[in-house]
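Question (not urgent): is this output format expected?
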Amino acid sequence: MTLMAIREIITVPNPLLKQISKPVDKVDDALRALMDDMLETMYDAPGIGLAAIQIGEPVRVIVMDLQEKPEGAAEDAEPVKNPRYFVNPEIIWKSEDTLPYEEGCLSIPEIYDEVQRPAHVKIRYLNYQGEQVEEEAKGLYAVCIQHEMDHLEGVLFIDHLSKLKRDRAVTKVKKLTRAA
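Got this back:
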């Protein structure tokens, strides 16, 4: 049993969030330990996705869990955990049609706004075991993977908004973090 740690999530305007993350050479035990910490941190926040750069690690790694309820489950049923790991993810195809979705971000607490993204993408990545996977993502899964992959390029969801909305978001987060 490995011991997982909850890490601090960095917030805007920390310059690390604008850094481009480096590719990972191999999936090994040290990287799996990082991914385990990321997942624990994401669950604790709570969130549905986290890029390594959000905990100060500039590597191309994402964890995600959309925690959907089982088919036919009762309204008050607990969602089932379904952790996903993405190492060196890349989009190899994206649809022309877009999906507007109100996004938020653990690095930009309490800020939500609508972003248009391709509704359907095909991605390639290495999983937790280091195996290459190719799959299609639609709906919330497509939105979330694109949001997290933006982090790997130093792009935040507020960068898709107007300058005015972006500046307001950063100012609000600065006030929140000072008050904490």
